[in-house]
From TrEMBL:
Reaction(s) the record says it catalyses: Ca(2+)(in) = Ca(2+)(out); Na(+)(in) = Na(+)(out)
Biased composition (Basic and acidic residues): 19-35
Lineage: Eukaryota, Metazoa, Chordata, Craniata, Vertebrata
Membrane topology of this protein: Multi-pass membrane protein
CDD domains registered for this protein in UniProt: NUDIX_ADPRase_Nudt9
PROSITE patterns, alphabetized: NUDIX
Cellular component GO terms held in the UniProt record: plasma membrane
Region (Disordered): 19-60
Protein name: Transient receptor potential cation channel subfamily M member 2
Sequence similarity: Belongs to the transient receptor (TC 1.A.4) family. LTrpC subfamily. TRPM2 sub-subfamily.
Major location (coarse): membrane
GO molecular function terms listed in the Swiss-Prot or TrEMBL record: ligand-gated calcium channel activity; metal ion binding
InterPro entries: Ion_trans_dom, NUDIX_hydrolase-like_dom_sf, NUDIX_hydrolase_dom, TRPM, TRPM-like, TRPM_SLOG
Domain Nudix hydrolase: 1236-1382
Length: 1385
């Protein structure tokens, strides 16, 4: 058994080891009660003696410790037992102990004396008193290295503000951005190794990234040990700066083993603490991995759970504080994380859920956590006592026998209430969030709770965004905040944009820019002033600005430091860049100042004490100043050396925009994110995903998703399997895609085969063999059109070749005329492609699109060459040149065949590689020309003298030099094989080259053969070996580079071919002229609109049915009341008997049911039923009828009466009596629901989700924190509720009654109210009073009579939404009104 060392008889030398220089301290000996004095909280020490005594413990300069040892004893207390009463229980060693648990010698000297006035019975409220604490300082865990923490012993009644002040002001802790309360099993338990690692890593990650405090029980066991080891592992793997995680252990002082080593009235700096688990017995050691300890003392020993009330109050107090960090002011959020646990843990979860604190349950950790996790997905009615009993037998198999039947009922009720608040409950499952994602589960739990919290307008969304910015978790902001659930206006993001810039959070700046923030609107004069006013103090530019301000103050002889203005910034910039720099910002005149031109946001932000919201307040007399926002913000980022911010801001400028518009960088647009989204859609529904590809979007210029991908040249998206499947589907038209190609060709050549089962179709109406539409469906399929065009083109080329080689007569034959007619049809088709504009792009745009295609250019080139040859051919004198030109045209038409082959998966990629290699050839020819021309000119000059014939000059310089590369070396170049007969000496023979320089006597060559041979060798060396191998290497590099993406490129280009033949007339040339004639007649004569073929097929929004968002089926609605069974009855400390859902009906047998009785005494009520439940007084009440002025009739008919008390018609509530209601039986109420349309300034009705929006009249009554409908309980004999009369003036009461008579009754009957009991309940009539016309006279009169209300009342017209903060039962009435009027809810 541990004892308190302050009272243990030890030697002075031993005591010195515990607390230095403490041997002579009178506190080391038993003291009288008069030695202690009670001092007020949070007062500074006024005793000079005590101050000098404490200072003696520390050397000079330790001001922090001096302040601590003078502040703590005067503001923080401990508790002492002042009266020894012998207990029936003994200590672990068998010794007699007091009722408080301590031994006699551990009490004060006066406590062991005979009682005089203290009484005989031990009463903790009387016999335990507060005294200045004697245990605080630094705790050092002996034998565990340099582990050091802070600790303090506090009274269980210590105000939370005092502890929070100690932690933030004296311990130096920064206020947290998040409070993580970890609770669970206090004893050691076993977790799966993988789950343990995931939990540890996720917990410390969320704490480290968000700047959170982790609060646990502080002992070295159970969940507290798991948290401590998680922090230890993180600190070992990170640097000292990164490993600073605040872990606060709140433990019971009376259960801490070895706590005597922590006692030191002057403070232990440090106090040596030994962690001894072997000898701790029933007590617990402190965990060495926690950084701070708050040891709660209630004056007892060995009693666990003492710290829970103080911990709850402290957590609640911290969660109500406002933290300012990163330019954002937030209320500190709190989340409860649960591992394992027993009955106490269930109570903690239930209290947290009741108080609105989100909880994360770690499934797989054991016991309570697993029980809740197992039933969390079940509908509440299915969570029965039998189900809970079965789960408890599995997860509490060791202690299951201890669960009584009443305990089972209580657990079932609490678990039902916990699961009912699903928005506050998050179950972390290992397989659901993945490894190391506990942090995401914790943060998502907070956002889920925030989203479902009642609020006015957009308060919750602002709060969530401020949390994300404060935590610096842009991943959470993307996934949880910027969703389709809420539409953000760019101006709403301006304050948080400024906060992100100031706190240097580039990822958030990038996110806000993506969400539509425009720097032109954001970066105004006042914003820049604010940004410079909140620069980092460590920045050089900031210090120079302060110097400029000091100089200005001295110059003006003022006592107050002037505010930073942009001309000060300009002055510092000139100092840094040189005086030659022009002033960037002019100095405004005293009467004028540039103003901000953006609206006021509804976000309260603070940075370093100055309010950002003041930035957005407009004032008159300001002059607008035009600035370059990118330049100004870029300078602001650069002068602070914030590289990432500078790069992001620079990317918003014109120079960055030019780069982003290039094809290479356009791939970095949001389009690359599409494949992942499209994959998810395609995986769920292939058909709908393919329709999305061609769905016209009005928001994107009436284009389609596929068109955007093509414009961005996003090959990754177009080559997606789903997109290619869609293209294949379009390629085959209405036919099945598994038809063999040979079947299609056979039916194309002999169409009667269509009426057999040789070819199958997808559509059922085309499946009958005798269907006539099969013919049209077959010949309009793009694959058939393509095959017919291929057949037609090959026929054209064969006929063309035959005419050129066999049948080219002076006068054209019929075959040649057929070629001319064929070509005319090709020209008409090219003209159609150029001018046919179904989308209304215009001629210029269509021409641009047409000539962008290489194959169209080749077509035009071939046609022009053919027309040129045809013109020459028709002139007799140029017949032969015409045939030559036509032959060249034939070559061009043959090259056009490559476009046809691109549809082949085998040949298509190879054609792409050939096209890329052609570019390499052009670069190679440039290098080759240098060597060919240089060698050719030198060779010609050395060998030939004055060759004047240009054709032979070209042959000698270029042609012969080029052939030399391939081995055709001129015979005369070395003089050995020279033959005078092969050349012309004077150059007069037009068929022979001119002879080289020769001797006139013997006609032998006289040119230097050795030189020409050397030049030839060098030429062949560089061209044959170097350049040709270079070309091969270039080809190889291109092949390898292109081969990796050939499939993607081919799939991308395949779309162009499919789109071309999808929009092409079905008939092949020359029969295509019939289709052209049809188009001409339809558009030219009949004036019919053109047929759209944009992007294969565009699905209209009406054709694409909206996704049927049938999520998980809502749990079946129960008819049982819920609010009427809350365990804590409102306005009292009475706890209801737990009633699970299945035990609510009176017809269900419930032998254990023994509810407490509670009836409040309303002294302010003139009429109320008797306070006691005596049978004599109850028999005077007449139920199910009018009882004097009191109407005891129920809207639900006759109700049962048992033992003189009526029974609630909806079943048990867990409480007898009438509670806070004034009558037994039904208590009638009236709730008018007054609504009007929500309108714009122009009077038009505002819509949301295509439904009209309502505004409802709500009120906040005195002493109430929530809003409510203007109505309430009816006093006996009254027609209007008292609360309604408070709102309206007396003269308007009759008129309002007329409005109620004209209104529509939406509810009449039982109201689920927290005040209901087994014997008293609320029944109400809800009437909808709707003003349809904004000029309604009655509505204007109502508004005028609302102005004379009680000043303590708050009344407003509020937008009707399911998230407005009203009573839960009132929101049900609003839902019925919205359903009645078919409005948004």
């Amino acid at each position: 058994m541990a004892v308190r060392g302050r009272r243990t008889k030890v030697l002075p030398s031993e005591l010195n080891k515990v607390c230095p220089e403490r041997a002579d301290d009178p506190a080391t000996h038993p003291r009288k009660m008069s030695d202690f004095e009670v001092v007020p909280n949070l007062q500074q020490s006024s005793s000079s003696v005590s101050k000098s005594r404490r200072k003696a413990h520390f050397p000079a300069g330790s001001n922090e410790k001096e302040n601590l040892i003078s502040w703590i004893p005067e503001n923080i207390r401990k508790k002492e037992c002042t009266y020894f009463v012998e207990s029936s229980q003994t200590s672990d060693s068998g010794r007699i102990v007091c009722e408080c648990g301590y031994l006699r010698e551990q009490h004060l000297e006066d406590a062991a004396k005979p009682p005089i006035f203290l009484g005989k019975e031990w009463d903790p409220s009387r016999h335990i008193q507060e005294m200045p604490t004697d245990a605080f300082g630094d705790i050092h865990f002996t034998g565990l290295g340099q582990k050091m923490g802070k600790y303090v012993r506090v009274s269980s009644d210590t105000p939370p503000r005092v502890i929070y002040h100690l932690m933030t002001q004296h311990w130096g802790l920064d206020a947290p951005n998040l409070l993580i309360s970890v609770t669970g099993g206090a004893k050691n338990f076993i977790m799966k190794p993988r789950l343990k690692n995931i939990f540890r890593q996720g917990l410390v990650k969320v704490a480290q990234t968000t700047g959170a405090w982790i609060i646990t029980g502080g002992s070295h066991a159970g969940v507290m040990k798991q948290v401590g080891e998680a922090v230890r592992d993180f600190m070992l793997s990170c640097s000292h700066k990164e490993g600073e995680i605040v872990t606060i252990g709140i433990a019971t002082w009376g259960t801490v083993y070895n706590r005597e080593s922590l006692i030191c009235p002057m403070g232990g700096f440090p106090a040596e603490y030994v962690l001894d688990e072997e000898n701790q017995g029933s007590l617990s050691c402190l965990d060495s991995n926690h950084s701070h300890f708050i040891l709660v003392d209630d004056g007892t020993h060995g009693r666990y759970g003492v710290e829970i009330p103080l911990r709850t109050r402290l957590e609640k107090f911290i969660s109500e504080q406002t933290k300012v960090k990163g330019g954002v002011a937030i209320k500190i959020p709190i989340v409860c994380v649960v591992l394992e646990g027993g009955p106490g843990t269930l109570d903690t979860i239930y209290n947290a859920i009741t108080n609105g604190t989100p909880c994360v349950i770690v499934e797989g950790s054991g016991r309570v956590a697993d029980v809740i996790a197992q039933v969390a997905n079940l509908p509440v009615p299915k969570i029965t006592i039998a189900v809970i009993q079965k789960k408890l037998s599995v997860f509490f198999h060791d202690t299951y026998e201890l669960f009584t039947e009443r305990k089972l009922v209580e657990w079932t009720k609490k678990i039902q209430d916990i699961v009912r608040s699903r928005h506050l409950l998050t179950i972390f499952r290992e397989g659901r969030y993945g490894q190391q994602d506990v942090d995401v589960a914790i943060l998502q739990a907070l956002f889920k709770a925030s989203r479902n919290q009642d609020h006015f307008g957009r308060e919750n969304w602002d709060h969530q965004l401020k949390l994300a910015v404060a935590w610096n978790r842009v991943d959470i902001a993307r996934s949880e905040i910027f969703t389709d659930d809420h539409e953000w206006k760019p101006t709403d993001l301006h304050p948080v944009m400024a906060a992100a810039l100031i706190s240097n959070k580039p990822e958030f700046v990038k996110l806000f820019l993506e969400q539509g923030v425009r720097l032109k609107e954001f970066a105004t004069w006042d914003t820049l002033v604010y940004l410079y006013d909140n620069m980092a103090p460590s920045c050089l530019f900031h210090s120079k600005l302060q110097k400029v301000l000091l100089e200005e103050r001295e110059h003006t002889a003022g006592s107050k430091m002037p505010r930073i203005q942009l001309h000060h910034v300009s002055q510092v910039l000139r100092e840094l860049l040189g005086c030659s720099t022009q002033p960037l910002y002019p100095k405004p005149k005293p009467t004028e100042r540039p103003r901000l031109s953006i609206p006021v946001p509804h976000i309260k932000l603070n940075v370093q004490g100055s309010s950002l919201r003041s930035l957005y307040k407009r004032s008159a007399g300001r002059v607008t100043f035009t600035m370059d926002p990118v330049r100004d913000l870029l300078i602001w980022a650069v002068v602070q050396n914030r590289k990432e911010l500078a790069e992001i801001i620079w990317a918003q400028g014109d120079s960055a925009g030019t780069l982003l518009s290039t094809p290479e960088l356009s791939l970095e647009s949001p389009v690359p994110a599409w494949p992942g989204v499209f994959t998810d859609c395609y995986r769920k529904d292939e058909e709908r995903a393919q329709k999305l590809l061609t769905r016209v979007s009005e928001a994107w210029g009436k284009t389609t998703c596929l068109q955007l991908a093509l414009e961005a040249k996003n090959m990754n998206f177009v080559s997606h399997g789903g997109v290619q499947a869609f293209l294949t589907k379009v390629w085959w038209g209405k036919m099945c895609m598994d038809n063999g190609l040979w079947r299609v060709v056979a039916c194309m050549l002999f169409f009667p085969l269509l009426y057999t089962n040789l070819v199958t179709f997808r559509e059922k109406r085309l499946q009958p063999v005798g269907c006539l539409t099969r013919l049209r469906a077959f010949f309009t399929a793009p694959v058939v059109i393509f095959l017919m065009n291929v057949l037609s083109y090959f026929t054209f080329l064969l006929l063309f070749a035959y005419v050129l080689m066999v049948d080219f007569q002076p006068s054209p034959s019929w075959r040649e005329y057929l070629i001319y007619f064929w070509l005319f049809s090709l020209v008409c088709e090219e003209t159609r492609q150029l001018l046919y504009d179904p989308e209304g792009f215009g001629v210029v745009k269509m021409a641009s699109l047409y000539f962008r295609d290489f194959w169209n250019k080749l077509d035009i080139c071939g046609i022009l060459v053919f027309l040129t040859g045809l013109t020459c051919r028709l002139i007799p004198s140029t017949l032969y040149p015409g045939r030559i030109i036509l032959s060249l045209a034939f070559i061009i038409f043959c090259l056009r065949l490559m476009h046809i082959f691109t549809v082949s998966k085998t040949l298509g990629p190879k054609i792409i590689i050939v096209k890329r290699m052609m570019k390499d050839v052009f670069f190679f020819l440039f290098l080759l020309a240098v060597w060919v021309v240089s060698f050719g000119v030198a060779k010609q000059a050395i060998l030939i003298h004055n060759e004047e014939r240009m054709e032979w000059l070209f042959r000698g310089v270029v042609y012969h030099s080029y052939l030399t590369i391939f081995g055709q070396i001129p015979s005369y170049i070395d003089g050995v094989n020279f033959n005078i007969d092969q050349c012309s000496p004077n150059g007069t023979d037009p068929y022979k080259p001119k002879c080289p320089e020769t001797n006139e006597d013997n006609n032998k060559p006289i040119f230097p053969e050795w030189l020409t041979v050397i030049l030839l060798c060098l030429y062949l060396l560089f061209t044959n070996i170097l350049l040709l191998n270079l070309l091969i290497a270039m080809f190889n590099y291109t092949f390898q580079q292109v081969q990796q993406h050939t499939d993607q490129i081919w799939k991308f280009q395949r779309h162009d071919l499919i789109e071309e033949y999808h929009g092409r007339p079905p008939a092949p040339p020359p029969f295509i002229l019939l289709n052209h004639l049809q188009i001409l007649i339809r558009q030219g004569l009949l004036r019919r609109p053109p047929v759209h073929h944009k992007q294969l097929s565009s699905s209209k929004p009406s054709e694409l049915k909206e996704v049927d968002l049938k999520g998980k089926a809502e749990e079946s609605q129960t008819m049982y009341h819920v609010l009427a069974r809350n365990l804590l009855y409102p306005g009292s400390h009475t706890l209801r008997f737990p009633v699970p859902d299945e035990k609510v009906p009176w017809e269900v047998d419930f032998p254990l049911y023994d509810p407490p009785t509670y009836s409040a005494d309303h002294k302010d009520m003139a009429v109320q039923d008797p306070f006691s439940l005596s049978l004599e007084s109850l028999l005077k009440i007449n139920y199910n009828t009018m009882d004097g002025l009191i109407d005891r009739q129920s809207f639900h008919g006759l109700y049962a009466v048992q033992d003189g008390l009526p029974l609630n018609p909806m079943g048990r509530t867990g409480l007898r009596g009438r509670g806070r209601l004034h009558c037994f039986g039904p208590n009638h109420a009236l709730h008018p629901v007054v609504t009007r349309w929500r309108r714009n300034l122009d009077g038009s009705i505002i819509r949301k989700s295509l439904k009209k929006m309502l505004e409802v009249l709500v009120a906040q009554y005195p002493l109430s924190d929530v809003w409510a409908l203007p109505g309430g309980s009816l006093e006996p004999g009254e027609t209007l509720p008292l609360k309604l009369k408070w709102i309206l003036r007396r003269e308007f009461w009759p008129q309002f009654q007329n409005l109620l008579k004209q209104g529509t009754e939406i509810h009449k009957g039982y109201l689920d109210d927290p005040r209901n009991t087994d014997n008293a309940w609320v029944e109400t009539v809800a009437i909808s009073v709707h003003f349809d016309n904004q000029n309604d006279v009655e509505m204007k009169r109502l508004n005028s009579f609302l102005q004379g209300c009680d000043p303590e009342l708050c009344i407003r017209w509020q937008v009707l939404d399911k998230r407005i903060p009203l009573h839960a039962n009132h929101k049900e009435l609003l839902h019925k009104v919205s359903a009645l009027l078919d409005t948004y809810y």
